[in-house]
Amino acid sequence: MNILAGCRSVSPFFISGNPKFSLNHTTPQVPPWKSTPTSIVVVAQLYSISNNYSNRKKSGKLVGKCKGASEHNILLLPEKFNRHVSLLFVRLIAGVMLVMLVSATVSKTSSLALTEENLLFLEAWRTIDRAYVDKNFNGQSWFRYRENALRNEPMNNREETYMAIRKMLSTLDDPFTRFLEPEKFKSLRSGTQGALTGVGLSIGYPTIYRGSSGGLVVISAAPGGPAYRAGISSGDVILAIDDLSTESMGIYDAAERLQGPEGTSVEVTIQSGTEIKHLALPREKVSLNPVKSRLCEIPGSGKDASRIGYIKLTTFNQNASGAVKEAIETLRSDNVNAFVLDLRDNSGGLFPEGIEIAKIWLDKGVIVYICDSRGVRDIYDTDGSNALATSEPLAVLVNKGTASASEILAGALKDNKRAMLFGEPTFGKGKIQSVFELSDGSGLAVTVASYETPSHTDIDKVGIIPDRPLPTSFPKDEEGFCSCLQEPASACYLNGVKLFSR
Questions:
Q1: Of the listed 429, 431, 434, 476, which one is catalytic?
Q2: If 321 and its partner were Cys, which of 245, 356, 410, 422 is the partner (CB 3.0–4.6 Å)?
Q3: Active site residue 391
Q4: CA–CA gap between residue 303 and residue 305 (Å, rounded)
Q5: Banded pLDDT at 478 (limits 50, 70, 90)
């Protein structure tokens, strides 16, 4: 999982606009509180005792086992005593019903006395109750937590309420389900719309298979951004931010520290291989264009000549699918006969955009399976009605900075045998978050599901394995890509024919 630190919070990719999940900045409607008054349980127990007594009475005897005595039959008591017991039973029932009425009145009065702060807390609680992927809630009673929190947690002002919500979310032990204050929520929304402010780093937690012992791992550096210009690349480890160690720092805390007013700077300590670098990075505001494209002409005669359309997709913001379509149409006007889609260092973004871009390249087939603890709960597929480029050969470039929605797209194209994948194993982020807005303008990012590729591969913490590696030092920019296809003598040379052959 990852986040675009100092820029936007889109990398733990978000579902938006999916009616099944109601996940587009709206608070889900949740049934009323579910609780069983203690008095009702008591009535049920008494009713059971009464039935047992009645049944045994009809049989003419009561059968039981006494402590310290052998099993034996006990004769029925005299009728007068039976009537006395029945009268006591009726009085007891009446007393219990009175307790129920008093309990209901007190409960109703208590619910009407909830403060505005209590109601905001309950709004957050209901959102998690409805949307969170783990219905065991990390092994706790979610309803009991609600009752205890309302009784014990101070919620006298907004900051105390926010603290109570954060404390509640921490019990889930899920670093990607988190609370967003109004300003952070606003920043996240603007990030998915293409505006970003910061140093241009997408960061994530180190995973076991990468062998990192601490710190936060760089997923990607935004092309042209401050971190990119400073030479920071995917796989580097952030050891400290402004001299504060990141060993136990969360990615969202790190992202907040990397953010700041435009024109200010932040100091970072980076480990790149065995080298330790201390860098001062300026914070900048950048408008993100998610797509770059160009035509690559490969020399040859007759059928050996190739015109390849190169498309680099850097993020899945709300403009991504439209920008990809525009790039395809522009390249087709140049008579390309094949496409290369570069997803390297694309750390994800909006889930629906990943689905829409997959539909551009596929004539039919499953795109992704959405799963929860009970198994597959939804299937995204395509019938070809939105297809735009299904006939030309397609190659996809990936690396360890390819994450989240990028992995969904790469997995769909690979498993449907639409494209060959070149590069290195992807990041391995197989969880889905959604963003919910609360009534005061704050929000929650909630893990709502996991996913599997069309071949039912769970890529979480493993990644997607490409079909073939890329040559060493293969460039990441469009100019360098074309030169590696055009110059057989270069160290990064990649045969254009092999690029599309299986």
A1: 429
A2: 356
A3: no
A4: 5
A5: confident
